[in-house]
Amino acid sequence: MDSRFLQTYVHVVELGSIAQAARHQGLTPATVQQRLRALEADVGSALIARSGRTVKPTPAGVRILERARAILRDVRDLRSAASDTDLPAGPLRLGATPTALTGIMPPVLRTWVARHPGIEIYIEPAPTTLLYSKVLSGELDGALLVHPLFPIPKTCAWRDLRHEPLVLVTPAGMPVTDPLAVIAREPYICYDRSVVGGKMADDYLRARSLRPRVRFELDGIESIAKLVSEGLGVALLPDWASTGAPLAHVKRWPLPEPCPVRTVGAIWLRSGVRSELMRAFVELAESQLGLGGKTGDAPG
User: Fold this and answer.
1) Of the candidates 140, 112, 34, which has an alpha carbon nearest to the alpha carbon of residue 285?
2) For residue 104, which of 163, 169, 161 has the smallest C-alpha distance?
3) Which of 166, 186, 165, 184 is nearest to 174 (CA)?
4) Contacts of 295 (CB under 8 A, 6+ apart)
5) Predicted local distance difference test score (pLDDT) of residue 80
6) Per 3-state DSSP, what percentage of the chain is helix, strand, and coil (rounded to 5)?
7) Strand partners, 268
8) pLDDT tens-place string over residues 257-271
């Protein structure tokens, strides 16, 4: 059985379209159909039911889907382990939150390409909660994300990369002498309270009996900062990293202590075949950020 045919089948199911799967793999739709027919002949059952331009798995296709994904992971692990270099072969499947992707990774990726030009990195942008679950399930080799509000399991390694205290973000021209008075007075753009940084901000305000006038609530630090720059309100946000020019027309102000701090770091499975690759990537990130330390478990 050709593992490439299994990968094509998984892509067809996940994308719901032969045409989209063909584009995703750089193949023609006719080639995708040929691979599906060959796979169905090999297993002895129809795996895909066609309805117009959309497709869905048959009952047999549903039953083999997770097994097919597991086989593909095993094949990928085998190829990585068979590397004759100091590091396992890639690709390194790496997740990153949007702020980590734009604020931490660009200089690290630039150096990685120079040092390891033959090791490809697949990058998946996603929120922390989704990345965390994908690392634990083995779908990703590691991720750069926000430390959750609970202990990391012992099966995982963790490395701190950034500590980001909450700050008040205002339009650049707004005078601020008392950050708490500004929060109480101005329209407030609320960082989604279901994510770590948003919950920290909400807890900080509650502890000071502050109930700002919420105008908007959303996830996405850069998006919130953009709304602030347009004069639509003020916000409490983690002091996020940025590798480009600072966002124009906003200013960050420190908050009265005690101020909560969001920790951004790297997580990966200790026993993963590509754990050495992930460790090498994290050590490179530390050198770029001027950090150092031992691999371990983040404090709960």
Assistant:
1) 112
2) 161
3) 186
4) 157, 158, 159, 279, 282
5) 66
6) 45, 25, 35
7) 142, 157
8) 999 999 999 999 998
The pLDDT value recorded for residue 274 is: 82
**Which amino acid is it at 61?**
G
Distances, alpha carbon 79 to alpha carbons 74, 87, 88, 240, 274, in Å? 9, 12, 8, 37, 10
Cα 87 to the chain's mean position, in Å?
Answer: 23
DSSP-assigned beta bridge partners for residue 218 = 191
3-class secondary-structure state, position 108: helix
pLDDT band at 50 (very low <50, low <70, confident <90, very high): confident
Q: CB 211: neighbour CB atoms within 10 A?
A: 11
Question: Of how many residues is the chain composed?
Answer: 300
User: Would you state the pLDDT for residue 118?
Assistant: 84
Of residues 163, 166, 174, the one with CA closest to residue 250: 174
Q: What is the pTM of this model?
A: 0.74
Token pair of 1 as six digits: 């059985």
Decide: 235 and 208 in contact? Cβ < 8 Å: no
Residue with tokens 């003020």: 234
Judged on CB neighbours under 10 Å (0-12, 13-18, 19+), 197 is: buried
Non-local CB neighbours of 110 within 8 Å, separated by 6+ positions: none
- Residue 184 near residue 294, CB atoms below 8 Å: no
Q: Is the pLDDT of residue 83 over 70?
A: no
Rounded distance between C-alpha atoms, residue 171 and residue 156, angstroms: 41
Interstrand relation of 187-191 and 250-254 (parallel, antiparallel or unpaired): unpaired
* Token digits of residue 115: 């040092």
Alpha carbons 206 and 183: distance in angstroms, whole number: 12
The two tokens of residue 103 are 């604020």
Please state the rounded mean pLDDT for residues 143-162. Answer: 93
Confirm if 238 and 164 have CB atoms less than 8 A apart: yes
